[in-house]
Amino acid sequence: MSSKLSPVAPLSQVVFVHDYVQLVFQDEVFSVYNIAKLVFRGVQISQGSPGFCDGLVNLIGQRAVQVEQAEQCALSLSFEGGASLHVLSSESAIRGPEAFQFAGRDNLLVVEQNA
User: Fold this and answer.
1) Following CA atoms 68, 69, 75, 81 in sequence, which dihedral angle do they give, to the nearest 10 degrees?
2) Side-by-side strand order, sheet with 20-25
3) How far apart (Å, rounded) are the C-alpha atoms in residues 17 and 14?
4) Partner residues linked to 16 by β-bridges
5) Contacts (Cβ under 8 Å, ≥6 apart) of 113
6) Across the strands, what pairs with 24?
7) CA-to-CA distance for 101 and 115, rounded, in angstroms?
8) Which of 10, 51, 60, 79 has the most CB atoms less than 10 A away?
9) What are the Cα distances from residue 48, in Å, to 17, 65, 104, 105?
10) Angle CA(89)–CA(87)–CA(35) in degrees, nearest 5?
11) Residue pLDDT, tens place only, 3-60
12) Count of CB atoms within 10 A of residue 49's CB?
């Protein structure tokens, strides 16, 4: 995955929109459209489950230290505190034509389509 998908600044905002989530890293934004899960210290919390929103908000101030695509994920963001967010790509996680979108520096726009 391109290093351009790695935000420079720490996470500064988490925006919960009706059916998607935005992770704002100052001037760079991931819009996550597929269902995601948060993993921290062996505990997995699926989007829509109690604790998911609080877990994401608790990541504010942390940097994304690794951004990658994994076998069963459209996107994985690992944070410096040890937590990771996985944007799922399974059929049951898909909500529309796009899995995620990244608006980055230098007018970079990346849209990952669901297969």
Assistant:
1) -30
2) 13-17, 20-25, 28-32, 98-103, 109-113
3) 10
4) 21
5) 97, 98, 99
6) 13, 29
7) 15
8) 79
9) 13, 25, 27, 30
10) 80
11) 678 899 999 999 999 999 999 999 999 999 999 999 999 999 999 999 999 999 999 9
12) 12
